[in-house]
Design brief:
By secondary structure, the chain is mostly helical. The chain has 2 domains: 17-405, no CATH class; 425-531, D-Maltodextrin-Binding Protein, domain 2. It has 22 helices and 4 strands. The chain has helices spanning 3-43, 49-63, 75-79, 90-130, 135-149, 158-177, 182-199, 203-219, 228-245, 254-264, 288-308, 310-313, 315-330, 335-356, 370-379, 388-408, 425-434, 444-454, 466-469, 471-481, 487-493, 506-510; strands at 440-442, 498-502, 517-522, 526-531. The longest helix has 41 residues, at 3-43. It is globular and about 75 Å long. The termini are far apart.
Length: 535
């Protein structure tokens, strides 16, 4: 056997091993999509917020109108008489209602799985492929993104913001790629914003990204042969059109005035998921994928800057990658959005480099081994993330995973128990059987359960819609439940007849010493007490 034959045989063996590696990669990616559905069914109903989301959706569908006051509490009207609450996610509540009505909680987790799979797998992989990012790198980034955000796979309005953000990134990348039909771009942006601002407040994040993009593009040197005047005109029109479209909601400009109250209310500092990551969080695996994703994206950006200069990489990718990586570290609720935007930064960087790099620069190749380079090239023959088949298969596999878990593994209920919150199911059943009436003081998370199960029977003092109630009521709530300051006077001023709080709350023990109150129910999770005839 001569040297040429040996080389040919080696190449064949290498090609055979590479083919199997590619098949395993695609297979693992599809299994990963199925796993997204498994996580959605296992974790998706753990947030008590889903209770009032469904209850409000039921109310809107039943009355075919938006409520002019809060239908589930008696305290909202005390502090906001004649003022309709801003239901800034009313379309999500209505969508959840129809899905739940048609297919119950199973349908809700199946919907959750489909949206998550498309937003975190299909859209990023397609964008990275069209930007000439090597497939191995694209799959690694996408898997890290899914793992980074899996702790927040919850049936909440944010899931639609994840989807809209992915589509919004696609729109920006389309504009970034070169000349496009202006009317089509503007119409798509307007339609997306009209829907987004009625599904969730995350539309403000989308506009923030667009403002940064427009500012970076207007200050950047135009590519050779590009008309800066026409480009600037499109960008300004795009920004104006997007902002104006957000006025098409039931509250008009009032929605914008409400956003600062929502995002910057002082009570947000008490909400765990709005806090920054700390050293103590490193004891859990939960946030390690996000840290790894941040490190990988930062390394890519710095390597590119060192290779061809930061101007060729582009200001927008750099600001997006490092800015949103920091935002995720400062507020853990932003981690899913930050992860998606870091992938967008990588996509935009590769497109920018492709347009700016000289002819002798090899694009789309990371400085890894030959095997990884060949692996990425070979993968193109085995799967296409931009194809309709792939974009149907991934959500369907995720939906199948969610359906099988809901059918055979997890007994779905709302909300499901977790380490963060154990719902007092038996206590709520006692309330329903006892038929108690009067003014109730309750734990905020317990209020979510009451709204869902006893909404028409027993109005709540408060629930987890903290932004709706306002700081004054929240301050009174905290004084009463912690039994501090003038809590006794507050109990009397609100004419409270019933108390339903956690067994660990100080109020539950202090009531024993308060004349005229008697304990009706107690277990390891909750206490129910009632005021007697004499105060």
């Amino acid at each position: 056997m001569n040297e040429k034959d040996i080389t040919s045989e080696d190449n064949q063996q290498c090609g055979f091993r590479l083919a199997w590696l590619c098949r395993l990669t695609v297979g693992a990616l599809l299994v990963f999509a199925f796993t997204v559905g498994v996580f959605a069914a296992g974790l998706g109903l753990r947030d008590p917020d889903t209770c009032w989301l469904l209850a409000l959706g039921d109310w809107i569908a039943e009355h075919r109108a938006l409520p002019q006051t809060d239908p589930f509490s008696y305290t909202y009207a005390l502090f906001h008489p004649g003022k309709a609450p801003v239901l800034y996610q009313w379309l999500t509540e209505l969508a959840f209602h129809f899905v739940h009505k048609l297919s119950g909680l199973t349908g809700l987790v199946v919907l959750l799985a489909a949206v998550l799979a498309y937003a975190f797998i299909c859209l990023p992989l397609a964008q990275l492929r069209r930007s000439s990012v090597p497939d191995v790198l694209a799959i690694a980034l996408t898997c890290l993104t899914v793992l980074s955000t899996s702790f927040h796979f919850l049936a909440r309005p944010e899931i639609f913001s994840y989807l809209f953000l992915g589509l919004w990134i696609e729109l920006i990348l389309q504009v970034d790629s070169g000349p496009k039909s202006q009317p089509a771009i503007l119409a798509a942006a307007a339609l997306m914003m009209i829907l987004w601002c009625n599904f969730h407040s995350g539309f403000a994040l989308g506009l923030t990204v667009l403002v940064v993009y427009v500012a970076c593009r207007l200050t950047a040197k135009p590519a050779p042969g590009a008309g800066k005047g026409s480009q600037a005109s499109l960008l300004i029109k795009l920004l104006c059109c997007s902002v104006l479209a957000t006025a098409l909601n039931p509250w008009g400009v009032r929605l914008w005035r409400y956003l600062p109250e929502l995002f910057f209310m002082p009570f947000n500092g008490r909400i765990v998921e709005l806090r920054s990551l700390s050293v103590a969080d490193l004891s859990e695996f939960t946030y390690y994928p996000y840290i790894a994703l941040t490190a990988l994206v930062a390394s890519l950006m710095l390597w590119r800057c060192r290779s061809i200069g930061w101007r060729s990489v582009g200001l927008f990718p750099l600001l997006t990658a490092f800015g949103w990586a920091a935002a995720g570290l400062c507020c853990r609720r932003l981690i899913p959005f930050s992860a998606l935007l870091m992938l967008a930064a990588v996509s935009c960087m590769y497109r920018q480099v492709k347009m700016a790099a000289p002819a002798n620069v090899r694009l789309g190749q990371p400085s890894l081994s030959c095997l990884l380079s060949g692996w990425s090239r070979a993968l193109k023959r085995y799967y296409d993330p931009t194809s309709a088949v792939f974009n149907l298969s991934v959500p369907l596999l995720a939906m199948l995973g969610a359906y099988m878990v809901a059918l055979n593994v997890v007994a779905l209920r709302l909300p499901q128990s977790s380490s963060a919150f154990r719902p007092p199911v038996e206590a709520v059943k006692f309330l329903a059987r006892a038929g108690l009436s009067g003014r109730l003081f309750n734990d905020a998370q317990f209020g979510d359960l009451i709204i869902w199960q006893l909404g028409k029977q027993l109005p709540v003092f408060i629930d987890t819609r903290y932004d709706m109630y306002g700081e004054r009521l929240i301050a009174d709530y905290l004084r009463i439940i912690s039994a501090t300051d003038n809590w006794r006077e507050l109990v009397d001023s609100y004419a409270i007849d019933l108390v339903f709080v956690s067994a660990s709350d100080r109020l539950s023990s202090e009531l024993k010493t308060l004349p005229g109150w008697r304990e009706l129910y107690r277990d390891e999770l909750a206490v129910i007490a009632q005021r007697g005839q004499s105060k």
